[in-house]
Design goal:
about 800 residues, five-stranded mixed barrel, about 25% strand, alpha+beta, globular
């Protein structure tokens, strides 16, 4: 029989591969299509026997690309989602799996692919929509794998072993305020490289590794190796590359030993585990080091041409006491009309890191510096980050400067931008700045009248006005004390120190916010491609849940979607003992700030235009902003990415930022648990104040109010104290006297053991005989221990928050 389409076949009698692919796509997408297997396609396309190998290869390629589904009885169908309906499902949506610590997963559709985005939109899915995958439905998928998945709406399906399991899981995913969906992995399309850190175990039957991260399963069997250099001892920390997934689930997995880290209790070993777990970079490539070493350590006169000379102007830096990379400095001048001229100088990293260079490519890959509990993994080599780019005192440095003018009320009246050279006259730590500011805090204007008043005190006269105006315009006061993990020389935690966000921090934050906003306004008006920092409005459902939570703590407010009501709630929270925990609940009710190429505004700051400009040493997004502004004003070096590439870059930087934040949080958590382990072993119990965040049958989930440590008081410990769980009211009641324990209750608790799998502390209720001591181990006497600058909640770096 002759084929219907004679052009379908090549001269050798075999079909053209591209034409075969097009014809298969046409048949599969035909509304009248009835599922066919390979034989069915061969008959319909009138293929000779010699062409069947090409048919099989083409079908396998289309399946691997996620275009088609290999279904029951070997029949294929086009991957096309059904319309969303209760109990409906869509087969074969492509995306990435994220494994959670509890073993379950989340599914993230590939919104960068137009086809995938359209398929997701047909189901009503958004980028923020939570899609839960129960552990039993992950198949062989691991964290980071690209998969095909069936998406289900809320109606329980037969493949869920337990309807209650699904409802519980989806309830936890629904906390975002979005409609909840569930997924089942049907095929793994691409394996994400898996380097798992764990502890080597062994027996007569062989060796295996117990992963540090519970999400990686219980154990990974080792494939025997002949490499004599890899000779770990049982109990050592090792790195395993997973290479075999023989069956669904995370059991029976095998891998190759690729690195021995040494004894588990060796100094710094815990942080090495974090580095390998999150695939954080360590050494810089040789080409990057070579470029960095070629940069002169002293700024040559030739580099200062065409720059404004600020070297005779008083310019200062204010940073954490242990900071080494100083990327911002300030100068201030009082104007004749009573206003101010503020100079915000930012290290001109773009002068040294040019587009397409080895330095640039590596900085882009890293995305940002990572601040672990005991070390920094920098975005740029130390010769730049701590050297010629760092605005060190008494050394000439190149900067980008935002020169901002204000009237006497602190209203910005003008903004201009220049390339400058400075010589910082003094380096203040936040503690030192606060000391010289303190005498003038009650009357900031007095410093402006005294010629010999230090610059930080004079600057607070403007900073305080900017802060008042910002909150008057609707900005939310989400500042709260932070906690710094203090380590000894061996990396052992000796203290969890609470750090207050005092006026020295607040002043620098206001000045950086002003510079960021001014640059964002400039680039938005000029319609220049840039990476903006956005913070979308929170979802109404999550705000309603927050309102109910605040109500249980005696805070009565109205509709929190009204910004004034949100400010009212925050004002009522301030000053309360449990304020940090309550503010954290407010933060969790909001969406996460993100990078975006469109200027969509910042909800938390109440700003229409905002971006990151002030930290190019440690954030690649800031470097891109510098280049975009440089192109606009001076032509710059090289072109900035176009709109499409900028979108891809924004998503990449969002990923590196989230990964860094998670690694920083994990590193702090490891040291925090180690600190509590020391307390538990102490013969004298230590008492903590903790607030109940959730009351369930398993116990009370609590958070220590002073240092934000999460933990649980389990039901058996509560029963020993005379409490029982009342399911109707979701609280614990005392059998004989005493009030109920529920969400918002503040308790005295004592740590009793560490729940390693959960990464939390188990507490018991403190009895009256417990000796009360503070979290630093000193007897409580109502005095503050003083603080060194901490940083944003997941790092030891202080200064302006990651707004």
């Amino acid at each position: 029989m002759k084929p219907k389409n004679p052009d379908f076949f090549a001269p050798d009698g075999l079909p053209d591969a591209q034409q075969l692919r097009r014809d298969l796509s046409r048949i599969l997408q035909d509304p009248r299509y009835q599922p066919l297997d390979k034989v069915g396609f061969s008959k319909q396309l009138h293929l000779p026997v010699e062409a069947r190998q090409l048919l099989r290869k083409t079908l396998m390629q289309m399946e691997a690309e996620g275009l088609i589904i290999y279904g029951q009885r070997g029949k294929y169908r086009w991957r096309q989602p059904d319309s969303p309906r209760s109990g409906g499902k869509a087969s074969g949506l492509k995306g990435v799996v994220h494994i959670l610590r509890n073993g379950h997963g989340k599914f993230l559709p590939d919104f960068k692919d137009p086809t995938e985005a359209a398929a997701a939109a047909a189901l009503g899915l958004k980028r923020t929509s939570p899609i839960a995958i129960p552990e039993s439905q992950l198949g062989t998928a691991w964290h980071g794998d690209t998969v095909l998945a069936e998406i289900y709406t809320e109606q329980p399906e037969a493949w869920w072993k337990h309807v209650a399991e699904k409802r519980k899981l989806m309830e936890s995913m629904r906390s975002s305020g979005e409609p909840a969906f569930a997924a089942r992995v049907t095929k793994v399309l691409e394996r994400h490289p898996q380097s798992v850190v764990g502890t080597l175990k062994g027996s007569a039957k062989g060796y295996w590794v117990t992963p540090d991260d519970p999400a990686c399963g219980e154990k990974i069997a080792l494939i025997p190796t002949e490499n004599q250099e890899l000779r770990p001892n049982v109990g050592d920390k090792v790195v395993v590359e997973v290479t075999e997934w023989p069956k669904p689930g995370r059991s029976g997995v095998r891998g190759n030993l690729i690195r021995t880290l040494g004894p588990a209790n060796a100094a710094g070993q815990d942080m090495m585990s974090i580095i390998y777990q999150f695939r954080l970079p360590q050494d810089f490539p040789e080409a990057v080091i070579a470029e960095a070493e070629a940069v002169p350590p002293i700024v040559p006169e030739s580099a200062m041409k065409d720059r404004e000379d600020w070297r005779k102007v008083e310019v200062i830096t204010i940073d954490p006491f242990d900071a080494k990379d100083f990327d911002d400095a300030i100068a201030l001048k009082r104007l004749p009309d009573g206003g101010w001229e503020l100079g915000v100088h930012i290290a001109d990293v773009s002068h040294y890191v040019t587009p397409g260079s080895a330095l640039d490519k590596e900085a882009r890959i890293r995305g940002n510096s990572v601040y672990l509990a005991d070390r920094v993994i920098p975005m740029l080599p130390e010769r730049l980050s701590n050297g010629v780019c760092s605005l060190r005192p008494n050394e000439d440095r190149l900067t980008r400067c935002a020169v901002l003018t204000y009237n006497k009320d602190g209203v910005r009246t003008g903004a201009r931008f220049c390339k400058a050279v400075i010589c910082s006259s003094k380096r203040y730590s936040y503690e030192e700045a606060f000391v010289v500011m303190k005498p003038y805090l009650a009357d900031p204007d007095r410093a402006c009248k005294e010629a010999d008043a230090p610059l930080p005190a004079k600057a607070w006269a403007l900073g305080s006005r900017l802060r008042k105006r910002r909150f008057k315009q609707g900005s939310l006061d989400l500042d709260f004390p932070e906690v710094k993990v203090v380590l000894d020389d061996m990396g052992v935690p000796i203290e969890l120190r609470r750090v207050e966000h005092d006026e020295s921090h607040q002043m620098i934050e206001e000045f950086m916010l002003e510079a960021n906003e001014a640059v964002a306004e400039q680039l938005r008006r000029a319609q220049r491609p840039a990476i903006f920092r956005i913070h979308e409005d929170p979802d109404a459902e999550r705000l309603n849940d927050l309102r109910d939570f605040l109500l249980t703590n005696g805070i009565r407010v109205g509709d929190l979607s009204n910004r004034m009501e949100m400010q009212k709630a925050l004002a009522m929270i301030n000053g309360r003992e449990e304020a940090p925990v309550l503010k954290l609940a407010v933060l969790k009710s909001m969406k996460r700030a993100a990078y975006h190429i469109d200027c969509l505004g910042h909800y938390g700051l109440a700003k229409d235009s905002y971006l990151h400009f002030t930290s190019p040493i440690r954030r690649y997004a800031d470097l891109i902003v510098h280049r975009s502004q440089g192109q606009l004003l001076w032509g710059g070096k090289g072109a900035t990415p176009d709109y499409g590439k900028m979108l891809e870059l924004a998503e990449h930087l969002g990923h590196t930022e989230r990964s860094a934040a998670e690694a920083e949080m994990q590193s702090r958590k490891i040291k925090e648990l180690a600190y509590f382990q020391k307390i538990i072993k102490s013969p004298k119990p230590t008492l903590f104040k903790a607030m109940v965040s959730k009351a369930l049958r398993v116990g009370l989930f609590v958070e220590v109010t002073e240092i934000f440590t999460k933990g649980i008081v389990r039901a058996d410990a509560l029963e020993e104290a005379g409490y029982y769980f009342d399911a109707n009211t979701e609280r614990y009641l005392k059998r004989k006297g005493g009030g109920p324990l529920t969400v918002g209750s503040v308790l005295d608790v004592v740590p009793i053991f560490i729940e390693q799998e959960r990464g939390s502390v188990a507490f018991r209720l403190a009895d009256k005989q417990s000796a009360a001591t503070s979290v630093s181990g000193r007897p409580t006497d109502g005095k503050s221990g003083g603080g060194k600058s901490g940083g944003h909640p997941s790092s030891n770096r202080s200064g302006p928050r990651k707004r």
